[in-house]
Amino acid sequence: MRVSALLACSLILVATLASSCSGSGYGSDRYLAATLPPLNITPVAAPTPDALGRVCVPVLLYHHLQILSADAGTDWEDSTVTPETFEEEMAYLAAHNFHSTSVADLIAYLEQGRPLPENPVIITFDDGWEETYTVGFPILRKYGLSATFFIPANWVENLDGTLSWAQIEEMDRAGMEIGSHTMTHPYLIKSTPEMLTWELENSKARLEKHTSKPVIALAYPFGLYDDNVIQQTKAAGYRAAFTIEPGLWASRDRIFQLPRIDIPYSTDLNTFAADLQTANP
Fold first, then answer.
1. How far apart are CA 82 and CA 66, in angstroms?
2. Mean pLDDT, all residues of the chain
3. Cα separation of 152 and 148, whole Å?
4. With pLDDT > 90 as the criterion, what percentage of the chain qualifies?
5. SS3 of 125, please?
6. How far is CA 134 from CA 85, 103, 131, 139, in A?
7. Tell me, what's the pLDDT at 278?
8. What tens digit of pLDDT does each residue of 18-67 get?
9. In terms of C-beta density within 10 A (0-12 exposed, 13-18 middle, 19 or more buried), how is residue 48 classed?
């Protein structure tokens, strides 16, 4: 995804979110999370790392779940999938024996050799838009999947169209993982040392007040980072961080530069399936 796509998301007040999602049927009572069965994922055999200690774990990247107008433009198309497409993709994962796992489990595998599920996949959402709860969360529960939600902590209940603390807490209790996307979604590489520390530390602390587990993973806003940002991320207490660089392989020596697979609006199921296949590291 281009930087411009994420910049558009952070600058535009998303007044169209509610209307775009309301027509899809995913806000109806039959999709409410309370009516869905509890998460029940059984870990099985661990995947095999390559000779350099790397492991293939697809990490899927989503932002918006809504239907776009024909003139929405490439910025929105780069960061959006329809609710129907998202459900089709989650159904594919469930039907083809993929097992969703957490960033915490990936860290434990890379650092301690703790087993991962068979055919592991990590599903991530950046920015904390409300439709990830009203649309995405029920679909995940329907197919017995979990996801990691990277939240800009200062956006919560301060920016129209974003998650509430109650919604974040409910997803946390249901087994979803909460990660940090800083406080205000800035360009970290351009932040002063004081602001960089504030963005990283305060977001982690604020999110941990509303979750049952430590917040140990960061997604870099706009995917931008440098050596200084990595060092400050480590100093703030994070144990892993994600980019928007494409790739399937995770390794301990690049645990603060983990790649992800972006899923744009144009992705069909054949492309989605191909993106999940093991590639050369």
1. 5
2. 85
3. 13
4. 73
5. strand
6. 15, 23, 5, 9
7. 57
8. 333 333 333 333 333 333 334 343 333 456 655 556 889 999 999 999 99
9. exposed
What is the DSSP track for 28-64? SGGG-GGGSPPP-----PPPPP-TTS-EE--EEEE-E
The angle formed by the CA atoms of residues 9, 12 and 15, to the nearest 5 degrees, is: 110
HSE on the CB side for 52, CA within 13 Å?
10
56-80 tens-digit pLDDT: 999 999 999 999 998 888 889 999 9
pLDDT band at 112 (very low <50, low <70, confident <90, very high): confident
What is the DSSP track for 207-219?
HHTTSSS---EEE
Q: Find the radius of gyration of the CA atoms of the chain.
A: 18
Which three-class secondary structure state does DSSP give residue 116? coil
CA 226 vs. chain centroid, Å, equals 21
Structure pTM? Answer: 0.82
For 218: left if phi > 0, alpha if psi spans -120 to 50, otherwise beta; the answer is: beta
Q: How far apart are CA 181 and CA 56, in angstroms?
A: 24
Contact 58, 261 (CB under 8 A): yes
> 134 near 26, Cβ under 8 Å?
yes
Tell me the sheet residues that pair with 62. 125
Q: Hey, what CATH class is 3-11+49-275 in?
A: alpha beta
Can you give the residue ranges of every domain in the chain?
3-11+49-275
